[in-house]
Design brief:
The longest helix has 25 residues. The chain is 75% helix and 0% strand. It is an all-alpha fold. The relative contact order is 0.20. It contains 18 helices and no strands.
Length: 343
């Protein structure tokens, strides 16, 4: 499958060259947050990707996103994504995670590993390139676009190769928001079991919240803790991938060795540790949540604005089938884990 085209970021661009794209991304995030406040079932991050897709494919805007706005949009897709991952650490409290108990933690870890291996295998079965397969597996098994950005950085995968995985993880996460609540009654799920299912199987944090809140506060509480347990696994998964990639680089003559863990992932771990101390006030955490939404939203708008729907339909048919198969796999794994966790 040929990669989606995306003009690379020119690192020599001065700030004025970045401003048009950054301002458009910021405007899109404000609009996404406003729509989310009116319709809470629509996650702001999903809307940010959707607005990017519209900007890339609507006549008049498409030329602008591919031209004057491209440097700033590429900057957002790469650098603001990393900054957003760092701030994401403030959502993770190890106290809440450990409160699930060791049996649940081992179960969730097993689900993540099985989902990662299964999704990678399915993607390769559909003959997707190894880098794309790796990113899809990472995004589906851990925490959506944030995990894709982290894995792409540590494995030094080109930014244009992240576009298709981000589009797929957004699509399937949105599908979960609509489908999973419809299965609550047929499957006879209690709110707690449904919340654990959403937390164990839905990709992005915002998508988990949008899915679980349909079953009430108790479902949402369980879903968030289970999901954040998956999020904390981002650091060891990225570290393992970095160590493997570093070993591969050692085997090649004259290749510069990549870092085992990028600095922004260490920043994520550091802020998670800070959140765990309980030193931060609710006001600071609320402000950090807004900052995270802005950073990740701008990054996702930037990535979405690189997707040309016609090209996606032409090159991404096999990828879409692989993603849907992986979504079913993870939904099944998550449901089994939810029944075992909530008895």
């Amino acid at each position: 499958m040929p990669p989606l085209t995306l003009k690379p970021l020119l690192r020599t661009d001065p700030l004025p060259g970045l401003l048009p794209g950054l301002l458009s991304a910021a405007t899109a995030v404000v609009l996404a947050l406003a729509v989310h406040s009116l319709v809470p079932a629509l996650p702001a991050m999903t809307l940010a990707v959707a607005f990017g897709l519209l900007a890339a494919n609507v006549p008049g805007l498409a030329g602008w996103t591919a031209g004057p706005g491209r440097p700033g949009l590429d900057f957002a897709g790469r650098h603001l994504m990393r900054a957003g991952i760092v701030v994401l650490g403030l959502k993770v409290s190890l106290v809440d995670v450990l409160g699930l108990g060791w049996a649940a933690l081992l179960l969730i870890t097993g689900v993540v590993l099985a989902a990662f291996a299964g999704t990678y295998g399915i993607s390769r079965l559909f003959r997707l390139p190894p880098p794309v397969s790796l990113l899809i597996a990472t995004g589906f098994s851990i925490c959506g676009a944030s995990a894709i950005g982290a894995m792409a950085a540590v494995r030094r995968i080109r930014q244009q190769d992240t576009v298709l995985p981000v589009a797929l993880v957004t699509l399937c996460g949105t599908l979960a928001i609509g489908v999973l609540p419809l299965l609550t009654q047929p499957l006879g799920l209690s709110p707690e079991v449904f919340g654990a299912w959403a937390g164990a199987s839905v990709h992005d944090v915002g998508q988990v919240v949008a899915t679980a809140q349909t079953a009430g506060a108790s479902a949402l509480a369980v879903a968030v803790v289970v999901k954040l347990t998956r999020v904390i696994l981002l650091a060891p998964m990225v570290a393992a991938a970095g160590l493997h990639h570093r070993s591969s680089a050692d085997a090649g003559a004259g290749l510069k060795r990549p870092p085992i863990v990028p600095l922004f992932v260490l920043g994520f771990v550091a802020l998670a540790a800070l959140r765990t101390t309980g030193w931060l006030s609710p006001g600071i955490l609320d402000a950090a949540a807004v900052l995270q939404d802005v950073l990740l939203g701008m990054a996702l708008f930037g990535l979405g604005s690189a997707v040309r729907v016609g090209e996606l339909l032409h090159t991404g048919a096999r990828a879409l089938l692989a993603a849907l198969a992986s979504w079913l796999l993870i939904a099944g794994l998550g449901l089994g884990a939810a029944f075992l966790m909530i008895r």
